[in-house]
Amino acid sequence: MSRIEGRFKQLAKQGRTALIPYIVAGDPAQDVTVPLMHQLVESGADMIEVGVAFSDPMAEGPVIQLAHERALASHTSLGSVLTMVQAFRETDATTPVLLMGYANPVMHMGYAAFADAACAAGVDGVITVDIPPEEVDEINSELQRVGIDNIFLVAPTTPEERIAQIAARASGFIYYVSLKGVTGAGNLDTKEVASRLELIRKHSDLPVAVGFGIKDAASAAAVATVADGVVVGSALVDTLAQAFAAGDDQAVALGSAGKLLQQIHLGIANAAS
Hints:
- There is one protein chain.
- This protein is α/β, with parallel strands linked by helices.
- About 50% of the residues lie in helices and about 15% in strands.
- It has 12 helices and 9 strands.
- Helix 2 links the parallel strand 1 and strand 2.
- Helix 6 runs parallel beside helix 7.
- The longest helix is centred in the last third of the chain and has 23 residues, at about 250-270.
């Protein structure tokens, strides 16, 4: 059983929805990332989604695009992200860690080499935004070889036939993108999300996490009533960026991010009670 599967089963027994914060590794500097990951766990994170900086992050809105730019300016690479995860694992062997990124750096490293390096670092799941299910078999076989879950995105516009294709190849959980467009955009329609999750669950027994558009405790609580996991990205990344831009030192900036996550964690908990 993977750490991801185990964590979802543990939370299901407790009647809780998973809280999954997203950060960009190396934003604004490489030495911030590992302390930030530990801060997020202390503040209620059940899993951590770590973005791998890329020069053309097409799925991201302005907030996360800027985070990718800052991470690249700090010379963050796929290799250095794996080193950060390995450092996190030195004192946290239980929190699932997911990498979210784009195909080019992984293909450049080579699927087999990437799978081996990610496994050695302690990565539990991978989300590769721009590899469609029709082209995923090669990387899927390498990830399966080392016990890493391959997590797929489902959009509001994904037809049912394609959902079935994705469900047949996915492991760990399915990531439902709750809004059309890029990260951080628009307002959530919880009824629409619930309807789409019902359709996904017709084709898969995997947990379904929802992201894009979850900005605060209220929106997280609303989604938590229908989803198995809630992903918080742009709001968290923006809070951290604003703190550093205001001249806060690292401890204060991480505390600001932790406070936001604590509020969201409380919102999710209240939704379950």
